[in-house]
Amino acid sequence: MRAKITYFALAAVLVVYFVLVGSRGVLLIQQGTALTIGFGAGVLVLPFIGAWFLWQSTKFARAANRLARKLETEGALPVDNLARTPGGRIIRDAADAVFEERRAEAEAAPDDWRTWFRLAVAYHDARDTPRARKAMQRAINLHDGQPVRS
């Protein structure tokens, strides 16, 4: 729940930022010189890129949460029983051992979104965020019947 509140608070701050940046772009365009019109147009592009990125991130998070809820109802959600440091960080060797199991499961059943979801969690636990996102996107695509890139 805390993560959701943080996400929405940061998203709200970004939206306010986009509005402020957009208003500055409009003010620059209203100056009417070639230079300020060019700068204003360039500044107006930034909020649109940011809004697109925020939208894509929100869609991804919602889809991943939808799959997590489905796995939870099936009783197949991965259990977090990894060894941790006193500070709460996952011990790398423990995460690597679980990762190897999850990788083998995904290789054995490459068309099962559940194995890719669990592999994404294992990548995340091993602190490999780019691969975690790719594995989760593959799980989402498999679940939704979308094309999967190799």
From TrEMBL:
**Record SUPFAM superfamilies:** TPR-like
Q: Which InterPro entries match?
A: TPR-like_helical_dom_sf
Q: What is this protein called?
A: ABC-type nickel/cobalt efflux system permease component RcnA
Alphabetic keyword roster: Membrane, Transmembrane, Transmembrane helix
Species of provenance: Streptomyces zagrosensis
Q: Which residues cross the membrane?
A: 7-29, 35-55
